Structures are given as C-alpha cells and as structure tokens.
Amino acid sequence: MAVRMLEKPLGDICYIDGHAVRFDSAEGRALLEPTDDIIYYESIRFKSQIMIFFEAHMLRLHESVAGKENFAFDSEQLYEQATKLMREVEPEVTEGNLRIVLTNSKTLVHLSDASYPPSSFYQEGIVSSVLEWERIEPQIKVFRGDYKAAVAAAFEHETPFGMPYEVLLCDHAQKITEGSRSNFFVLFDQTVYSPSEDCILIGITRKYVLKAMLHAGLHYQEKTFALSDLVELQGRARREGKDFAVFVTSSPFDILPIKSISEFEFYSASSSKLQSVAQYYKEIVDFYIQSRQSDHTTRQ
Q: Minimal CA–CA distance to 64: which of 144, 10, 9?
C-alpha cells in the first residue's frame, strides 16, 4: 500500500535532500503524493532545541535501513538540517516533535504536530483498548499502510471508560505485546515485566526507562500477559498489599500509567514504584539535555 512520507506537518518549511523547501511550493506539495518506496522514519522529541536521545534514534534508523535495503545516509547531516529547521521555521520553535524520514532516494526532515497528553493522564492514567495484530519485522521501523489503517479503525471504537488514548496489540494467543505507538510494561511487587525484544519494536524511551527501573531498585524480566492475567495479577497485588501497575512508554509522552484496558479498570497511577521510575527517568532526560547544551551552542 502506497503511503506518504509527510505526516502531520507543522510550520511553513521542511528540509528535502539537504535544502529548505516551503510546503506551499511545488516540491513541498509533492510530499503529499503517496509513494511505493519503503519509508523509514524516526520521531524525535526536542526541548530547548535539543533532540532527546538523538544518537539512539539514529542507531535504530541505521538498523532499520540495514534490515531492508542497506543504503547509506549521513546522521550528522540530518542533525544539522534538523537544527537549522528549528531555527528557521516561522515562528522559531524550542520544544516539540520532528520527524526524520528516509527512502532509498530521498531524505525529509520536518516538524510534526504531535499531541501531548494533559497532566490528568499522568495523574489518573489513560484509557486503552486491544487489537489482535502481530507486526511483521517489528524491530524495523517502516510505514505499513495496512497496519496504520487497522490501528486507526481501533482508535475509533469507544470503551466503557471512553475513547482509547492507546491501542495495545496482542498476538494470536491473546498475549499483549506492545502499544500501537508505545512499549508495554507490567509492574508487580519488585519486578517489571515486558515482552521479549524479538517480538516488539524496541522503543528509544524504553531503553532509558529500563535504566530508571534499575535506579529505582526494581528487577526486570521478559514475560507476556493476557488481559485476564493482568486482572488476576492486580487482584493478587491488592490482596497481598503489593505494588502493581500497567503502563506504556514512548518518546512523545515518556511514561503513562494505564487506568483501563477495554472493559477492565486498573489502578496504575497510584503505584509508588511507578512514580519512582518516572522521577528517575525525568532525571535521565534532564541530564541528557544539560550535557548537550554546550555542544548545541558550539554547533550554532
């Protein structure tokens, strides 16, 4: 299925193959045309014009390209184009989201109108639903039209707790593997569980959340759960007075507790251990930004 390189553009310009292009120009409008080329992409959050975990995003992009077509591209040039874009767009932006998109013949860097959750989602948790879908080559981040259409349809189905903010994917055995745009975790007592890395897209935020878990004194184990398992595990945690939470992680929103999955309610936001993980993760992000402020100033 042919898809477009451009998704939720923001601002008046983008960078195509290294040069600035206005969206209202002929070259800019051509981005609205679907292509049959394989599209590789990374969505990167930035604060104070610092692209958070940029190196890790580029490593994953290189791995995705190597897994399909194995063509060369220059991460340093993409960094420079992204930095110029943040300064040159009208008005200049210091915080937001940008996308780096590649095919075997074109590079695109553009700002993206990513939606960030309100504070209530962090305080109370998010509504989610479940879609049975096993992704092909989940470790390779490319556009897949059939997958995007199925997920979009799932987002339109209201749950007893309201419209879903995230759609969780499950396999043929009904085990939850990941979110449509996030990684999925289960916290029980002193251990955090997540599916095996060979069946999920390994998120950039996930990597650093795992570090935050260690700082919080928690253990990590690979394991999958069906929705019925999670209901039972929450009941056990409440009976035994143990900590329990289900949550998702992703670059646009960091860490979000889940308050419902389909028709079942969870009390993830009250987990003190999840709150501790979130605090340690925030410290990791803050340190990353601070450590790169001088480098960013020098590059300018």
A: 144
